[in-house]
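Below is a filled-in request sheet from our internal design queue. Each sheet records the structural input a requester submitted and the sequence that came back. We keep these sheets so that new team members can see what a complete request looks like end to end.

REQUESTER: design group, bay 2
PRIORITY: normal
MODE: inverse folding
CHAIN LENGTH: 256
BACKBONE (tokenized):
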């Protein structure tokens, strides 16, 4: 008989809050992952929380894919996914060899650098007459997708922390709001599903963690509904600025 983990009331409350944030970030406000990942590690031990969080992420992925199923830009996914798969393999090999304290500041500094590049690209390179000169071609180069895909795959395997990496990539691609969310939804749905065999082989997904996920899944569904309503009402410009602000906040938290 599968038994739920023994949690204190405040841990249950925190788990529900994390589940709500999972749903919200999948369908409306990408970037909140940097908040709920460390918070969920307060519900369960850090290693166990990684495995327990994955099915909740997949519930959110499923809802996001169903809602934004026709909005994905498959050209971007085709460029990213093979490299992300390789990154997952690298992350799996690095598990136990690189700790969170080492990974987080490096990732944070890298995201800040990429955000700074994007600001330069949009504000400095453009002329006052609005793009009389072409934008730098870096974001469309094959190696840019390769680097981002490898980083996203490795960090999602190591710490469920690929969200900020994908935010920066999708912002650089200048996708409209729905295409941004749809492309991200399909990317994480595929990548998180690919992680299941690795997580299971490491004993990160257990009967007890799945029982907890079954209880918290309602929170993911509720958060997804709120995210969809939020995204529908949010102007494109506010969404773009908000996503970049969340990515910056995420990177600062990683540095702390």
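RETURNED SEQUENCE:
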């Amino acid at each position: 008989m599968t038994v739920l983990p023994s949690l204190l009331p405040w841990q249950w409350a925190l788990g529900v809050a994390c589940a709500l944030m999972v749903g919200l970030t999948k369908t409306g406000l990408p970037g909140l992952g940097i908040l709920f990942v460390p918070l969920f590690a307060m519900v369960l031990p850090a290693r166990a929380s990684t495995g327990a969080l994955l099915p909740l992420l997949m519930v959110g992925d499923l809802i996001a894919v169903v809602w934004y199923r026709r909005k994905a830009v498959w050209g971007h996914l085709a460029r990213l996914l093979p490299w992300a798969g390789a990154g997952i393999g690298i992350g799996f090999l690095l598990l136990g060899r690189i700790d969170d304290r080492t990974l987080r500041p490096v990732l944070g500094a890298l995201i800040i650098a990429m955000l700074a590049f994007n600001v330069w690209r949009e504000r400095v390179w453009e002329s006052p007459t609005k793009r009389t000169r072409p934008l730098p071609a870096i974001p469309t180069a094959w190696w840019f997708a390769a680097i981002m895909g490898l980083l996203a795959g490795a960090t999602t395997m190591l710490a469920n922390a690929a969200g900020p990496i994908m935010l920066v990539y999708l912002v650089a691609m200048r996708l409209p709001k729905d295409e941004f969310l749809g492309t991200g939804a399909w990317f994480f749905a595929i990548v998180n599903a690919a992680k299941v065999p690795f997580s299971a082989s490491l004993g990160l997904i257990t009967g007890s963690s799945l029982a907890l996920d079954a209880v918290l899944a309602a929170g993911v569904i509720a958060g997804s509904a709120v995210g969809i309503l939020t995204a529908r009402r949010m102007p494109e410009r506010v969404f773009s600025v908000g996503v970049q602000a969340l990515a910056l906040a995420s990177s600062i938290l990683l540095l702390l």
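SHEET NOTES:
- The radius of gyration is 18 Å.
- Residues 9-255 form one domain.
FILED BY: M.R.
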